[in-house]
Amino acid sequence: MIIISVVLLVVGIIFIIRGRALEISSQNRKTMLWIGSALIVMTIFLVIMGILQITDISTNEQGH
Hints:
This protein has 2 helices and no strands. It is mainly alpha-helical and 64 residues long. The mean pLDDT is 86.
């Protein structure tokens, strides 16, 4: 999970940097910024869900 999170985060940052740095049409620029932002947000949710899964107390209990 850590490797996937790092890869998604790096790719999202690359999309944002390229969207701001390159001289491209405004539609392509907006698309690259949206893709980068979405990847970063999904990475944050992935990390939060992983932390919640690890710290879930009820998984160690037996029974219902």
